[in-house]
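We treat protein structure as text, and this decision shapes the records that our systems exchange. Such a record has a labelled line for the sequence and another for the backbone structure tokens. The record that follows is passed on verbatim for readers who wish to inspect the format:
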Amino acid sequence: MKNTLTLLIVIFSITFLKAQTKLSEDNISIGEPYPVLAASNTKYIEYKDKIVAIKYYELLNKARYFSIETFDSKNFTLMESNLLNDHFSTKSNFEDIVVLNNRIYVFYSVWDKKSKIEQLYAQEINPASCSFRGDEKLIFTIQGSVTSTPIIDALSVVSSVYQRFYKYEFHTSFDKSKVLIQYRKEPKKNNDAVNKDMIGLHVFDESLSLTWGKEVIMPYTEKKMDNLDYALDSEGNAILAALVYRDNTTRKLINKQINYDIEIITVQGKSDEIIQNKINIDNDKHIVSLNLFEVVNNKVICTGYYAMGKNANEVKKVVDGAFKFNINQTGENSEINYYDIPLDVINQNIKQKQVDKNNEKEFDKNREVGLAYLVPKNIVTSTDSSDESMFIIGEVQYSITTVTTTSRTIGATNMKKTDTDVHYKYYNNDILITKINADNSLAWMKKLPKTQIASFPKGNKSFKIIEGKNAMYLIFVDRIENLELGSDETPKPYAEGLLTKGHVTAYKLGYSNGDMEKISLFDIKNIKGQEITFILDNMFSISNDEFIVELYKKTDKKNALVRVKLE
């Protein structure tokens, strides 16, 4: 298997040098400009013959508005816009937007401080009239408070005073017929060794009628277990993956062996019983990340990354490979399949000095060779019941904090003052794609080189996925010099800033064999001769091999939708 993978990578490296193109401007269409509405949270939805943009803006719990815009999906002109700036009270907290079989819902919460009651509400959106349909609906109330999680958005990166939080997580089934709303209640005592998490699990259908709901006490204390991920299957069962320590410590590794088990906890609405199943992870494989999700044919899958040997520690965060197993409705798992990252893939597009070091480590079989800071980003599966293959897509992400301390003397008193400056650099680098066949064999594994740097966590870093008919596109911002990049060359970094030059770029990968092409789409500051501002998060897929992006046109000082045909 390793020889076969090496051959595939060698072929890939050769073709990679030849397959670079620039997209024709004929493939780009710009819609009519329309007024700008700033937003800290935007969701774009393709709805019948319309494109719906739902925008929410909040500033210090005072200035807030909620807007709905609809566009013609053929010519991308604004059809209607409605600003609902008085619908939500300043006491409400925006939670999420959920789509269930062409029904669009806005969820928001209210904390009644006097009565100590949490309330979750939903409001359905009517895209035809750019308004809300009917009255708001009280989803449920909770006696006592629930925990909050900070959100990183366009405002929170500016200052912590703009920080927003969410209290609820929403997990839809694969067929979009149900939604699981999950929350964690605040513990009564601040003692992880004694407290057991109380997790709220409520399942609703597409009309937001309650299928079942309950608060479940976890079988172990907070110190003993870590909740990793949740999923909802099409039968309405809630599934939880948890890490459970084997002793009374919270050490994940002892002598390079795992000190924990992975358990799958299944909660069914028809029963009060909690079904627990232990997953037989190899003791020498440390689970770095884990995700649950449902795919075609009502199957629930668990995937993630693992580390081994000297890589199996909490500091280096180096990944040796990916894993996958299936889960049935009672939480039992199939055989676990492991997929090592080939050395050829790791050595691609890095400096020769590091290649030599990696080769030496591999020869000595110290198992130190891997990809550092690789985190899972996306799982791509087919909606065709005859195709159960899947893609695990990860990205190298990390940050570096630099603290500089300087001393200076003030005035005639010679009083000394110390100044401390803290600088952050956020990196979004190489992408790793792993294709797994329906029979759980490895089809191929590819590394897509890129280097992106910024002084803030959000922005035009990372990538977006467009699923085409015969190929997958990974869209990101890069330097034009990297378009013709040899397999032995390191990419020049795209450093985000006001003066930065960049191009929206695509890696195109064939679904079947991973054949790759690199395409330059357009400049981030100029498209078809018009000055623009490009934001990666404003991009969304509308059909096979096409995407829409909302741009700011500097000449008109207005927004416009732009359609890009990738084929």
Summary: DSSP finds three helices and 43 strands in the chain. The mean pLDDT is 87.
